[in-house]
Amino acid sequence: MTIDFDALDPFAAGDRAADQKQEPDDARRGTEQAHRTQRPRWMPYEGLASERLSTLTVHHYRGLDDLTLESIGKINLIVGANNTRKTTLLEAVYLLAHQNDEEALFDLIRWRSRVPCDDERLIALVPGFGRISGRFDEDEDEEVAFCLERSNDQISDDDDDRAAFLGRVSIEGTYGEYDYQTSDSVFYRGRPRDTVTKGHRILWPTAFSSPSAVHRPETLARSNRASLERGTKIKIVEFLREHIDPGVHSIEWIDEHGGFLVSHVDFDRARDLSTFGTSFRRIFEMSLLFADVRSGIVLIDDFESGLHAGLLRDVARFVQTLASEMKVQVFLTTHSKEAVDAFVLSKDRASDLAGYAMIQTGKPAKPIEARRFSGEELQKLHEAVNFDLRML
After folding, report:
1. How many whole angstroms separate alpha carbon 18 and alpha carbon 104?
2. pLDDT attached to residue 39
3. What confidence score (pLDDT) does residue 13 get?
4. Cα-atom radius of gyration of the chain, to the nearest Å?
5. Smallest Cα–Cα separation from 171: which of 136, 127, 206?
6. Nearest 5°: CA angle at 227, between 209 and 4?
7. Which of 69, 77, 101, 248 is the most exposed place for a label (fewest CB within 10 A)?
């Protein structure tokens, strides 16, 4: 079976080629891949490397309405029961960071569906409307926003276009009062979509780590190069050697192999990374992403998934170390008290931490709200009553 990594990798949007408008005849002859023309990686706005997201408001997106995270920290724990839209909140951060990059939205939809999607299925799964906004820690007056709309508006007079038309997806990204970017994708049955993109700037490089995600080889290879250049690769291997498998010698990306090979004292030949345990693989791939999005954002869904409970405190400290060294802001979801405690009990990093309890309100207009606790508050409550953020 051939795996469509491009369809399953939620981080692929950070490395997309910008879609340029094609002539209709070219679009009809092409394939879905052919309509994506190559271009340089989408680049962040200048000057944002030192900025950090301080406020996030999800005005409307996939069951979240008028939900605001205030005083966002460097490490942010998103905690709650099932069906409290924790992963949806991570998606909102991802979309805001990628502005008008339509492939960021489409990748999230492919990832949600767990299987590759053709354009007909893709357009059916796009939300009808969404709006997300945020502000920076050093400039609270400067708003950034993401707006999404799916419609059935047709503008073509061509009979073939009208017969094959499936829908339109329009995205607007704004930064401050004057920077305005758009993308407009028109979907057709039986042929590639047409996309017109105006502006190719993102806010921050952003990575999404999920236990159910399949990263493209290109993403892993690039992250491996960045970790070597920025000095995190050796620390990752040392962490795995100290806490999981002392026999590990090295983990190397092999282009011809299309993946990582692990050299081990117990094996005569290096073995594929996939033959090692879930905890080993999850920690390795998640940790690689930090160097690749330096001064950006890492989103980690179901942090504790695949990790042995005895590893949680060590992994939490390692995530905090990588985030500090790479100047990365972290948002992670969990429904595990042990995972929350693993971060809360890192006493020397309490000022970097914020916890948000996702609470079902029972109100149709605002079904979910987020209640914030600082790292210092969480530590005091843990010491006093063994506080459980999930139980609010």
Report:
1. 11
2. 44
3. 43
4. 21
5. 127
6. 45
7. 248
Give residue 137's pLDDT: 80
Question: Other C-beta atoms within 10 Å of 65: how many?
Answer: 16
| Residue that has been written with the tokens 């980690």 in this structure | 300
Distance CA 362, CA 45 (A): 40
Q: Which amino acid is at 61?
A: Y
CA separation for the pair 74, 297 (Å, rounded): 10
| Edge-to-edge strands, sheet with 271-272 | 248-254, 259-264, 271-272
Report the pLDDT value the prediction gives residue 139, as an integer from 0 to 100. 67
Average confidence (pLDDT) over 196-210: 93
CB 10 within 8 A of CB 210: yes
User: Can you give the length of the chain in residues?
Assistant: 392
List Cβ<8 Å contacts ≥24 apart for 33-39. 33/6, 34/192, 35/192, 35/193, 35/194, 35/195, 36/103, 39/200
Please report which confidence band the pLDDT of residue 29 belongs to, taking 50, 70 and 90 as the band edges: very low
Phi then psi for 142, rounded to 5 degrees? -95, 110
Q: Cα separation of 343 and 356, whole Å? A: 13
Taking Cα atoms as reference points, which of 89, 28, 13 lies closest to residue 293?
13
pLDDT per residue as tens digits for the range 330-371: 999 999 999 999 999 987 889 999 999 999 999 988 999 999
State the average pLDDT over residues 217-244: 96
Q: Which of 82, 63, 197 is nearest to 129 (CA)?
A: 63
Tokens of 182: 């758009």
Residue-level pLDDT at 41: 64
